[in-house]
Design the sequence.
């Protein structure tokens, strides 16, 4: 762990883990298309539909990396980000074409 912080370990195992699990789940049953991640993207870009696939993939990758209970740091290593970015860019491209 980069910080050696007990607080970070507690946060990653508790609140961050719960947020990570909910990231792509609907906020409400009334509108299943609106997920926590889509709401984050709306906050980052005023019109998330105009954001490039790479930008969206980057934002998703950062959120996943910071909240992931499997990554024991809040610093994102380049190799982890590259892997997630590649996965998320492919997913984003496929979803946008549907």
Sequence:
């Amino acid at each position: 762990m980069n910080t050696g912080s007990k607080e970070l370990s507690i946060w990653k195992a508790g609140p961050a883990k719960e947020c990570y699990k909910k990231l792509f789940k609907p906020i409400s049953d009334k509108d299943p298309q609106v997920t926590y991640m889509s709401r984050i993207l709306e906050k980052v870009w005023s019109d998330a539909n105009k954001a490039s696939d790479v930008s969206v993939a980057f934002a998703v990758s950062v959120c996943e990396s910071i909240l992931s209970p499997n990554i024991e740091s809040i610093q994102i290593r380049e190799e982890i980000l590259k892997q997630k970015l590649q996965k998320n860019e492919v997913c984003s491209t496929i979803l946008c074409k549907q």
Summary: Helices lie at 6-13, 15-22, 36-44, 53-67, 78-96. The chain has one domain: 6-96. The chain has five helices and no strands.
